[in-house]
Predict the structure.
Amino acid sequence: MERFSANKRNAWMGWTLLLLAIFVGTPALVFGAAAYEGKVLTIVVGYKPGGGYDRYARLAAKYLPKHLPGNPAVVVQNMPGANSIISANHLYGVAKPDGLTIGTFNNGLATAQLTKVAGVQYDLTKFAWIGSLASDAVILTIRSDLPYKTVDDMRKAKEIVIGTTGPGSSTHDFPSILKEFVGFNFKLVPGYSSSADVMLAIERKEVDGRAGSYDSIKPFIDRGLVRPLIRSRTASPGIETLPVDEDLAKDAKGKAIMVVASASTKIYRPYVAPPGTPADVIKLLRDAFAAMAKDKEFLAEAKKTKLSIDFTPAEESLKVVREVLNQPPEMAQEIGKYIKFGE
Amino acid sequence: MFESFVEGLFVVLQWQPFLIMLMGIALGFWVGLLPGLGGSTTLALMLPFIYKMTPVEAFAFLLGMHSVVSTTGDITSVLFGVPGEGTTAATILDGHAMAKKGEAGRALGAALMSSLVGALVGAFALALAIPVVRPLVLTFGAPELFMLAVVGIAFISSLSGQGGRALLRGFLAGLVGLVFAMVGQDPQAGVQRFTFGQLYLWGGLDLVPVLVGLFAIPEIVDLAVRGTSIAGELPQGNLGKGAWEGVKDTFRHFWLTIRCSLVGTFIGIMPGLGGGVAQWIAYGHAVQAARDLKEREGFGKGDVRGVLGPGAANNSKEGGALIPTIAFGVPGSSAMAILLGAFFLQGITPGPDMLDKHLTLTFSMVWTMVIANVVTVAVSFFFLNQLAKLTLVRGAVLIPFILFLAFIGSYTSNNHLGDLVVFLACGSLGYVMIRCGWPRAPLVLGFVLGKIAENNFYISTIRYGSSWLLRPVVLILVLLTLAVIVYPLIRMRNRDATPEKAA
């Protein structure tokens, strides 16, 4: 009985496939129910092995086969350069839209597109979005031994020295916008080679604080070296009650810039397929990601490896991208002054 | 503390961690040999394998692998003139020159033995530094790091040839290196420098394609032009028996080896100085050991001390680099940054706890580095004399193989066509420099130190105004810089007064 119904299903699928082939064309023929059988799905990562983007992609590569029909092999291809613009351009213009190549790149690429950074060839709204695996809050932290416990304490401070890795990273842009539009007396010291180096500078009291991803600063908060004071709109468990930068802004312009700057933290680990990837294939990929994000084993391994998971589906991800991109041109120019995009 | 020290050893010697460490060593052995595979990339790729291991097993595996990479990387550098790792390029200068003189075995013996000494010194430094590590690292802020970079750059004076003309060439080459370091987006204003509209150049030039081009291509061309084997037409008497001689060299110049190991350790401890720096400063220091003009001229043409210095330093720096990683959770090199990920995977937060609650684990890392290097060097010695015979293979047979390694090695740094362009451009540059008698080492020194000097100078000035100039450690480093510059000159003068006999 079991066997019979399976055969019947197969026959039914065969017909569907044939019909699809007639109506949609050849790509659909390749992708039926057992679409990915014997195939290799490549995840293009815009960074070198070892970083956050790479670690998420490798985790996904391990669990995606289980959730895709035909259980394909999934491999990671690193394509570093220009803060992942190279990989985004590749996915946009070079990679075949056959569902066998997907990719992940910097969540701030929307800002790069908005401010018309040289070298950008992609249009984020045209990608076939799959979704985002995680979100992350950007926070500002100050050394715990300093007397600044609230936003008001900070307002009264004569000077607070903030170490950064340079324009184009949240370690720099977040405090620089706060300085401009809330009016803190920050002195930004850019040029540290990594955010870990800034942490060490805090430890030797060369600087008073730093901003950056909550995930990466958390160990140092737990250790009592720094305390969090302000966060961006995307909250994470444990820091929900912190004041949000947008509520502190002096004017509407400042608030708008903060929104654009931190909108993309909602889609911290975005995944897309090349534009023109057939709809049925995209559905398979979206379903696979959604199912994976609920997979208990996947979540357990992510937790163990300190990769937080907070899945945002395609529609919502695209909405975030549009929110950033739908700025009037004069606003885009203003934003470009405060948010740089670079390596 | 002593208890943990001993316990750390026994923990590593349990059969399970030990077997896992041997696997790591075997892997690291090949990663080091092949120029395409870098130590830090491989570390990143191996991270998923440690999920199910205990912390001791995980670090035995990762560190076992990582700590032998520079050891076997030296082998490729010596034999083919292609850096096996970005951190073993300095070994080429004299190591490969020795291979060309038919002394490949001796060079390999010296490289491996000095690597072992370096690893031991690094590991012991790590063990000894544990009580003082926090104040030590915290003393070095941006101003001190800037001055350290200046001390490094001052070594150009001993890396250039003798005489005013040569010195001028050395400094000009150093300046070219500094310009190389400027390529990419500057971290102060976010401005693109020398990127010529190429996305590839945003992140700056990568160390590996530059080094491989600069050193490998001239050797390949040279080999092709000569039409012989690497060791040329030399009498082939004891070519394969030299390894033991190299070991003896290590002990003949024992203090030099120790000093270079200490240099490596110290540079490793300083976060942000990067893995490429130690070998070159150690090489500069080895060159300073030249007693007279004639000896000085021998460097770059196959002086065994030019192998011992970088050989020791590129291993000892790993012990040093572990120190800030463990004590502060701040990595001392790119490989350590990835290792830091491993700490988190294991649920351990690096920081003061490592020197207290997890002290046994910390010492198990020290022991892993020691054991891994002892094993590798012992195993390598079985092959050394056979490996040395590769220098007798006809060039026409070797060249495609070397060229292939060099191309792959460059390409794997970004998987981008730009890597090959940089590789070929630097290759041409290297060839022209050799033909015209310009030294390449100062260029590399400028390249690896340029960014460190620039960024830390900027941070120091914006943070402290000009008051940083009077910080005590800065003043000491200023004196050291002067000493580094003046030392070769004084040495030469002394020689004129009282000619020494070479020991």
